[in-house]
Amino acid sequence: MFHEVQHSIMITINHQRCNLCGICVRICHESCMKIENESITIDYRYCSTCSQCIAICPEQALLWDNNASITFDKSLYPRPVQLEELLGERRTIRDFRKEKIDRDLLERIVTIASSAPTHNFNLRAIVIDDPESIVKIGTTIYQFTTKLYRFLYKPKIIHWIVRSIAPKYEFEYLKGKPKLEKSIERRNAFKTIPAAIVMIVGEKRIPLSLESAQYALYNIDLYAQTLGLGCRNLVGNQMILNRSKFLRNFLKIGNDEKIFATIALGYPAVRFKNKVNGKRMPIQWN
C-alpha cells in the first residue's frame, strides 16, 4: 500500500496579490513554475511541494492548501550561544518517567518535521502512544536481540573468525556483547518504557528517503528537547522493525513502504548537568 500525497493539498496562488516579480519562478528547482499570459502557472505534475516558492514570495501571494504564509519574526530567533547550550545538552535518554505525552503536544512535535529539508515528499509519520503497542514493539526487538546474541556470541568460533579475518572489526564486535547481554538480562528492549514512539515511513523506491527521514527526525529531536522531553533515536532497531511481518501488519505499513527513522520520546527521569568541554571532531582543511 503506497500512501500518495493528497493532491487536494497543494500550492495555490492568490493572483490578486501576485505582482509577477518572478522570484518564485527563479527559485523553483523543479522548473514547474512559469509566467505566461501575465499570470504565474504551476505544472503540478512536476511540483514536489517543497514550498520554497511560498517561503520566498515577498507579497505572500502563494499559499499552502489556501493557508496564507506568515512572515518570520526574527526577534524570536535563538542566539548562537543559546543554540550552543541546547546542542551541548543533547544526549540520548534511556530513562523515562511514567508520564504520558499529551497528543496535542505530540502533534506539534511531529508537525515540525515538515519544515526539514527533504527529497521524499511522501513521508508520513506513525505515532505510537498506546503503552500496550509500545510493549509489543519492545518485545519484537527483544526477541530478535536474543536470537542475535545466540548466533553471534554463543559459538566461540564466531569471535575467532572475526579476529582472524576482520580484526579491525573486533572492537565493534566485542562492544555489542554487553549491550545485548544487558537487554537479555532485563528481558526488555527498553531500559524504561518511553511514552511514545514516532516512525517516519515512506515509499522505499524514492531516492534519498533515508536522508530525508533523518532530517525530519532531527527536527523532532531538537524541538522535543525544547519542550522538556527526552529522545532516543532507535537507529539500530530499524532493521528489526522493518523485517518483522507482525509489526508491519500491526502498524499498517505497506509492502512498498519502509521505516526510515524511529525515535522514542518521553519525559526524562535523568537530567544531564554538564557540557563536555574539549571534545572536538577532527577537521581536514583543503
Strand/helix succession: EHEEHEEHHEHHHEHEHHE
| Portion in helices | 25-40%
Low-confidence stretches: 1-7
Strand order of the largest sheet: 6-7-9-8
Q: Major sheet, described briefly?
A: 4 strands, antiparallel
List keywords for this structure.
286 residues, alpha+beta, four-stranded antiparallel beta sheet, three-stranded antiparallel beta sheet, 10 helices, 14% strand, elongated
How would you characterize the overall build of this protein?
With 286 residues, the protein is an alpha+beta fold. The chain has helices at 23-27, 52-56, 80-89, 103-111, 131-152, 156-165, 170-186, 209-226, 238-243, 245-250, and strands at 11-13, 33-35, 40-42, 62-64, 67-68, 124-128, 196-203, 230-233, 257-266. 38% of the residues lie in helices and 14% in strands. The strands form 3 sheets. The protein has a 4-stranded antiparallel β-sheet with strand order 6-7-9-8. Strands 1-4-5 form a 3-stranded antiparallel β-sheet. Strands 2-3 form a two-stranded antiparallel sheet. α5 (131-152) crosses α7. It is elongated, with a radius of gyration of 23 Å. The termini are far apart.
Lay out the secondary structure.
Layout: E1 11-13, H1 23-27, E2 33-35, E3 40-42, H2 52-56, E4 62-64, E5 67-68, H3 80-89, H4 103-111, E6 124-128, H5 131-152, H6 156-165, H7 170-186, E7 196-203, H8 209-226, E8 230-233, H9 238-243, H10 245-250, E9 257-266
Antiparallel strand pairs: 1-4, 2-3, 4-5, 6-7, 7-9, 8-9
Helix pairs in contact: 5-7
